[in-house]
């Protein structure tokens, strides 16, 4: 069910948990209704999906809902509808999502076929989003124009991950076996009911979508459902005369009935027809918000000369002062805060005390990023390091280091894993981060005394404090 209409919101609508003013009903399904709403604090329009908790529990769908939430949080991308937050009462569950004003792509196609450049743009954005999902072990399994929305800028947004699956659900044969999807867009291997590669099935659906955008009608169609399934299974379709040879060749690869030889996302992105006018979008997530940026800015740290890097190691005039820690901050840190050593680990985060200037710490982090070819991003006293996606990896290793003021001469550096594999993170810390940051760490009883003096009587000493 897509949340997308462009109706004006009603004034003075009912309030939801004191945060959102509910407006017009946009759509509904068996278990949920979707409303247009307004964030009363920011005045931002959102779409709120309201689920009936009793129906969800009776239908045995609670695990399904939890998985959908986890998937939406895993796939933050400019061409995927954003999930802002999830709230609940005793009887309802609320998904607060991005409000996409332009409606469904289906409504645009229903008026007739699209111009080639417009269709190509939508297809490029679709493949970018689908490839991003697949790299993170997420498979949509119900791609169709009704689940593709358009924002006010005419950019595509993939929605409705209700039938999605994750790689953790794969059976022992490495395949999925659940029959799902919309008949006209379902792949032949799903029809065969012998197990399927969900990534390849998504690619088939993308092929059907591309055909529909360019032709204005379905490649496989019959009023008799079983007759349509036979056409899909055999791959029987005919391209209209206005399709260019390059487009026909791409469609043949997308709608290849053999999933083993069907084109992959990397191959699509190297295709001559696809590449025309394509520009990859670089983005990042910070403070739970998604930001787009020029890819050259993010990659700049990888191409800097040693002299340029050296010049940026000097103290920067006007460097912002780190946020100060109070006693309660220190207490919240204390579990796993190894005050006498370099790193105190707490699962997927580490901290250490340093007496080095903030500019020197930031320069050292940039130096580490350059050595391992990580992209670097800075904002005040926060530095993000992002690796590239490795083959077989669901998401690139991403770390965030933040510097806090402890005393006028001491700071706390907190490093957190923001994405990627935990084992890879631990290996990176042991192999690169710890050895290179060691010279900046304070290993002195005076540092411990400083922390104790700041925290006062509220501070609970750790075993390391007395050793």
UniProtKB/TrEMBL annotation:
<feature type="domain" description="NAF">
    <location>
        <begin position="320"/>
        <end position="344"/>
    </location>
</feature>
<keyword id="KW-0472">Membrane</keyword>
<keyword id="KW-0808">Transferase</keyword>
<protein>
    <recommendedName>
        <fullName>non-specific serine/threonine protein kinase</fullName>
        <ecNumber>2.7.11.1</ecNumber>
    </recommendedName>
</protein>
<keyword id="KW-0418">Kinase</keyword>
<keyword id="KW-0812">Transmembrane</keyword>
<keyword id="KW-0597">Phosphoprotein</keyword>
<dbReference type="InterPro" id="IPR011009">
    <property type="entry name" value="Kinase-like_dom_sf"/>
</dbReference>
<dbReference type="InterPro" id="IPR004041">
    <property type="entry name" value="NAF_dom"/>
</dbReference>
<keyword id="KW-0547">Nucleotide-binding</keyword>
<comment type="function">
    <text>CIPK serine-threonine protein kinases interact with CBL proteins. Binding of a CBL protein to the regulatory NAF domain of CIPK protein lead to the activation of the kinase in a calcium-dependent manner.</text>
</comment>
<dbReference type="GO" id="GO:0004674">
    <property type="term" value="F:protein serine/threonine kinase activity"/>
</dbReference>
<feature type="binding site">
    <location>
        <position position="49"/>
    </location>
    <ligand>
        <name>ATP</name>
    </ligand>
</feature>
<dbReference type="InterPro" id="IPR000719">
    <property type="entry name" value="Prot_kinase_dom"/>
</dbReference>
<feature type="transmembrane region" description="Helical">
    <location>
        <begin position="203"/>
        <end position="220"/>
    </location>
</feature>
<comment type="similarity">
    <text>Belongs to the protein kinase superfamily. CAMK Ser/Thr protein kinase family. SNF1 subfamily.</text>
</comment>
<keyword id="KW-1133">Transmembrane helix</keyword>
<dbReference type="Pfam" id="PF03822">
    <property type="entry name" value="NAF"/>
</dbReference>
<dbReference type="InterPro" id="IPR008271">
    <property type="entry name" value="Ser/Thr_kinase_AS"/>
</dbReference>
<keyword id="KW-0723">Serine/threonine-protein kinase</keyword>
<dbReference type="Pfam" id="PF00069">
    <property type="entry name" value="Pkinase"/>
</dbReference>
<feature type="region of interest" description="Disordered">
    <location>
        <begin position="301"/>
        <end position="321"/>
    </location>
</feature>
<dbReference type="GO" id="GO:0005524">
    <property type="term" value="F:ATP binding"/>
</dbReference>
<feature type="domain" description="Protein kinase">
    <location>
        <begin position="20"/>
        <end position="274"/>
    </location>
</feature>
<dbReference type="InterPro" id="IPR018451">
    <property type="entry name" value="NAF/FISL_domain"/>
</dbReference>
<keyword id="KW-0464">Manganese</keyword>
<keyword id="KW-0067">ATP-binding</keyword>
<feature type="compositionally biased region" description="Basic and acidic residues">
    <location>
        <begin position="301"/>
        <end position="311"/>
    </location>
</feature>
<dbReference type="GO" id="GO:0007165">
    <property type="term" value="P:signal transduction"/>
</dbReference>
<dbReference type="InterPro" id="IPR017441">
    <property type="entry name" value="Protein_kinase_ATP_BS"/>
</dbReference>
